[in-house]
Each structure stands twice: as C-alpha cells, then as structure tokens.
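Re: that chain you flagged

S.,

Sorry for the slow reply, it's been a week of failed gels. I finally had a moment to sit down with the sequence you sent. For the record, here it is as I used it:
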Amino acid sequence: MHKSIDSFKGVSPILGKNVYVDGSARIVGDVVLEDDASIWPMVAARGDVNKIRIGARSNIQDGSVLHVTRKSEKNPDGFPLIIGEDVTVGHKCMLHGCQLGNRILVGMGAIVMDGVVVEDDVFIGAGTLVPPNKRLESGFLYVGNPMQKKRPLNDAEMAFLKQSAVNYVVLKDEYLEEAN
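Prediction finished late last night. Pasting the structure tokens below so you have them in one place:
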C-alpha cells in the first residue's frame, strides 16, 4: 500500500482506477477515491470517525484538510464528507462534514462547515466561510465571511467548473506517467 495511505480500526482507503495521491498527502480510514480523482501535496483526509467519499475526476489541491463529524445520540449519522464528481477543491481549503454535488469549484482558502449541502454547479469564492447547515443553490457564486449568494453564474463560469476538473485529470495523468 502507498506510504501515505493508512487503515484505521481495520478500515482502509479504497482507490479507483488512475487515482493520483501525492506522497506527502495523508489518507486515513474510511475514504473512497473514485476513478481519476487526485490528491495533491500536503492534503490530509481523515476518515476516522465517519466516511469520506470523493467522486470521479475530482481534485483536492495542496494543503487542504478533509474531515468528518462522528455519529452521536443527537446526530445518529454524524456528518460524513461527500464530494461529487468533477469537483475542484482549491489550495488550502477546509471541508468538514459537508456534502458537495457535482461540478463545483471551492476557491482557495475556503472553509465549508458541518451540515452544509452544496448543490451542483456552484462556485465558492476564495476565502469564503460557509457556516454550518447552509444550503448553496445550484448555478450561483457565493463569496464572503460569512458567505453570501452573490449572483448567478454566467455561461463561461459554468463551463469552467467542468474544465477545471478536466485540467486536473490531465495533470494527474502526467504525474502518473512521470512516476512510471
């Protein structure tokens, strides 16, 4: 097994086809990376007290932290971290016990907290703080601390959501080739 991937309480991460995990990243426990996902330098993804799921072609960029909230009497399911397909998580983001749909861009340094649900096709601006239990509606740009719904996405921004994921699939393939 990859040196930066560890089991916890007998549960090991599962990697799909053509997944890239940088050697300086740390992936622990109940984490599933679907096909063509990529984990970049210094990412920490800790599925120790709940599960983390990262969809196909999604990328988690340098220095990001992915974590979950444990199950409890008050919250029997806890808050897992679910990331859809074609999602770009920018450098140094913190995602904690939230659910992201498909074709989302989380800008650099953003923080998305427990219980947040982000619908498909959303752009979260750099440095944005999304407080607990918010729902971000499809097709909009959200910015600020705390976040505010700024405006609808234009056609170019909508296209960029998918293109950003494609760009990282190409880049991770180049890294995988280099490693062979």
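What I noticed first: The domain at 5-179 is CATH 2.160.10.10 (UDP N-Acetylglucosamine Acyltransferase; domain 1).

Talk soon,
D.
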